[in-house]
Structure formats: structure tokens, C-alpha cells
Amino acid sequence: MAYLAWAQVGVRARQARALSDGEPAGGRSSGGRQFCEDPGLPYRYERSSDAATLAREHAGMAAGEESAERESVAGRVMLVRPQGRIAFATLRDSSGEIQLFAKAGETERFDEFARLSIGDWVGASGRIVKTRKGELSILVESFEMLAPAGRSFGDKWRGITDVELRYRRREVDLWANEEPRRVLTLRSNVIAATRSFLQERGFVEVETPMLHPIPGGALARPFVTHHNALDTDLYLRVAPELYLKRLVVGGFERVFEIGRVFRNEGISPRHNPEFTILELYQAYADYGDLMTLTEELVSSLAVGLLGTTSVICDGRTVELSAPWERTTLMKLVSGACGFEVSLDTPRERLEEALRNAGGLSRASDGAGKLILEIYEKACESGLTGPVIVKDFPVEVSPLARRHRDNPALTERFEVVIAGRELANAFSELTDPDDQRARFEKQAAARAAGDVEAMAVDEDYIRALEYGLPPTAGLGIGMDRLVMLLAGAASIRDVIAFPTLRPVPPAG
RNA sequence: GCGCCUCUAGCUCAAUUUGGCAGAGCGACGGACUCUUAAUCCGCAGGUUCGGGGUUCAAGUCCCCGGAGGCGCACCA
Q: Model confidence over A55-70: pLDDT tens digits?
């Protein structure tokens, strides 16, 4: 009975498709509604195998050979090649592709099979054969329309290539293009492998609030939202850092969180307003321990997921195997300036060096900020790495512990690969009084108009007063890590649905 | 925010250095075809050339304003 209904559905699908992509409500809604109401479409389909399994099991079959084995598969029609009394269709499921081969004499409802369209979801069953040309196929005995495609999927060979359309209609991009499927699958594997890497080392995965009364943990402009029942503004988190360290205070000695953070800043090929960060905290460890951990994590991901530690990023070949080069911020900046730089370097010399690097100083900038700016302008993008850049000024590191050999610096490092910051880590500041002083300095900058500066977080200071053991913390931008491993040029390629400007309402 | 570039049929793209009837392929629709691989062949339909204004006998094309997007810079991860 179902197939009679389908014959009508199919026709409607094609009518809808002709109008489809132009958005106007007419074609879409009339087409779509009828699909939903049609009682002929099945609720489930029982498969016996999938494309990749069948290909593996029948690798040895000879061209023209016909097996008696009967299998059923389901997937999306990628191509149809009707040819009179026979017809071929390429079916894709999540494992791969397999050909459906229909014959008028052997396939029930052959005429309907021959009228399948690109994008239709079908289930089909029949014997496994190899065609005379050697293509593994299912000689279809019966098939079912699972869902007709009511909209065009673009050019059958090229799909859609318009960059904006690819991100706006990611379902079409994923359907039509191999690369986004590969990249998003790799992303899933990177996240999963990172979890198991950390769990094997005794880290406990936790979840901390995304709605913060005070945004903290990073220098960034937050999104503001409002809770009605509490009648209070809340901020989408810019980092989970402070809550994670409070868990360490509470006795979780090794914790991590992989989650979304939100920063109300510009959008670029390397920045999305929401992105996924890994943060981990390890008690009784210092930043040197995390240098090793970071090297191991990144190189083991590369080996496990790519089979190599050599990746190409931005046209640069990067060797990810440990150990990585280690240097200090002061050494890099001194090299760029051509003279020895320290926090005692006269301000005029630093300002001049920053100007030479193409940056502008602000009156509120101290020596530490100026040195960091010089580094970012003159050094960072030229570092192929991986390189561990150590020992940042206190002024630009409000949550990091002072360096054991120089209290004007902190025990903080960043990892730079292919000119981009991948990770940021430090020995955590444990002294509540120092933390309060640093917060107050931030708050002063905030009052002076720095929208990225932190506010004083009393809850966090109180937590430190209960006692934070010596602890080291690490943050890694997972999107950037996936970009590195996938060789992706844009962060949008590694995010399923990147932030786009909403389409203005029609009319 | 600034600079450069892009926008034509559902999709991918043409439309002469120097303005002259808006076209093709794919897809859709109708038909032929028993081993195809982006099948092939015949036929048919499909357009606010991103929007608005201007110059001109005539604008997809030239000029101005606006919109959206991409890239670079700036800010950041």
C-alpha cells in the first residue's frame, strides 16, 4: 500500500523542488506539509548491513559474479542513472557508498525506482552482485522511499560552493562535500580522544556554570543576558577557569572541562563568538608539568588520529612530536627589538619598538603590556613552532602565580603553532591577597573603560582563602586544535554551525 | 571599524579589449534506452541580473547610495 502513496509523494516532491530554493513560502510549505501528513512513509527501516561493511566483505568478488546473499541497506540517493529497463543509483550512508542496481524483471515497482531523485532517502534489499564493470551492487528486489527530498541539493556534481550558503545550509554542504564530513568527524574524534587521554591520567570531567554573575577567568568582553525570576543580569561565561579552581579547592585534584565559552568580539577566520575550550587543573603540579602534558596530548592526538606527527598548516609544515622548543617571552621580544628587553626597559624604548612593529601604545599600558603587544605584533605570527613561550609579565596575567625567580613575571606559558596561539597555561595564583590586588587593578582598568578587564570576584577570593594547593592549569582552544590537525583554513570549517548574521525577514 | 574583491535561472558559471535581443551545463518536468559510473539522446519550462537612484536612444555591463558575503588589517583564542 505504501508505494501507491509514495508515487504521489514523489510527484509532489518534484513540483516542490522546482520552486524550492527561492524561499518563498508557497513552494516550501505546500510541499513540506504534504510530506509530513502523508501516511505512506515508513516509521522505521530494518537494515542488515551498511556500505562499508559490504565493501569489506565482498572485496574478493569477481566482476559479473552474483552472490545468493541477501542484504538490506538504507541511505541517501546521490546519483541516479536510469537506462530503460535497468537503472543504477548510488546510495550513501554514513559508512560510505554502494550502488543499487534495479532491473525491470527483478525489482518490484521498477518504474518508481527509475524515478528516484538526488537526495531521496531510501531503503533497499536484494542480492549482492558485482556488475560487469566490477561495481559492488545490491540487485534490488524491493525498496522503500523513506523520505523524498523536497528541495534541490544544488549541482549534482559540485553541490553548492558559495561559502555563505555552505555555512548557512550546512546540511547541504555535508551532503554534497566530502571535506566538511571529514573535518567534523575528525573534530568528534579529537574531543573523544582528548577525554580518554585525560581520564587515563586521573582527570575527572566536570561541568561548571555557563551563566556567570561576574564574568571572569579571561580578558574578554562578555555577552550579557537576563534572568527574569531573579531579575538580574547574567553573563555567558568567557572561561570556566574560576569555577574549576574552586573545585580544586574542594578537593578534586585533577579536573577538566570541555565546553563552550562565549566572547563578544569580532568574527574572523580564526574567531567565532562561541568556541570550545578545554581547561584542566592539576593539583601539586606547576607549569613545567603542563608543558610536558600539552606536548604529550597534542602529539598523541596526531599519532592516534592522523597516524603522523607532521601536519601542514597555513602552508607551513609543522612537526608536532615532543619535545617542543622552549623559550621566554623576553628572549623573543629582545630578538625582535634588537636589544635586551626587560620590565625595567625605559618606556620610551618600548613604545618605539611597538610603533616599529606596527602597534599603538595606550597611556594606561605598563611595561608588561607593551612587551606583550610587541610580542604579538612582531613575533607570534612568525613562529612556526611548536614553541613554548614562557614567563609573561604579571600585569597581563592576573590569575597566574608569580615566577619563583622573578616576582615581576609569572609562571605562564603559551604554545604557538603555525603562528597561532593554541594553548595558555600557568602555575595558578594561590595567594588570596595577591589575587585581590590583581583583581582591583583589573577593576580599575575596567572603570577606565577597558571592556575586557576583569571585575573583583569575591566568591573566588574567598575560595582561595580556604586554600588552593599548588596547582597548574591549562586552556586549549579545541577549535584551533582541530584546525591544526585537519589542516582547516577557517574556524568555520571546524564548527558545524558557525555564527552568521541572521538573514533579515523576507518582505 | 578600515581596505580590496564578489553578488546573473534551484545549483555551477557565461554574456567580446570598449554598453546593443540574458545564455549554457547540471537539476526539474515530458519522452527514448537491459551493465551505468557526473550515463547518453530528444523535447519543454525556468530570470526583480542583490536593492535603490543616475548617465544613455539603449545598462548585467558605466557612475552614486545602500545590503549581504569573502579575504586582509585591527581586537582577541
A: 999 999 999 999 999 9
Distance A466 CA to B1 C1' (A): 45
pLDDT category at A362 given cuts 50, 70, 90 is confident
Question: For A104 and B28, how far is CA from C1' in angstroms?
Answer: 24
Per-residue pLDDT at A169 exceeds 90? no
Domain regions of chain A by residue span: 2-152, 178-324+385-494
Distance CA A21, CA A24 (A): 8
Query: Span A178-324+385-494: which CATH code?
Result: 3.30.930.10
Q: Which helix (H) or strand (E) holds A394?
A: none
**Residue A423 binned pLDDT confidence (cut-offs 50, 70, 90):** very high
HEC profile of A418-462: CCEEEEEEEEECCCHHHHHHHHHHHHHHHHCCCCCCCCCCHHHHH
Task: Give the Cβ contact number of residue A365 at 10 Å.
Answer: 19
Q: What is the assigned CATH class of domain A2-152?
A: mainly beta
A64 CA: nearest nucleotide by C1':
B35
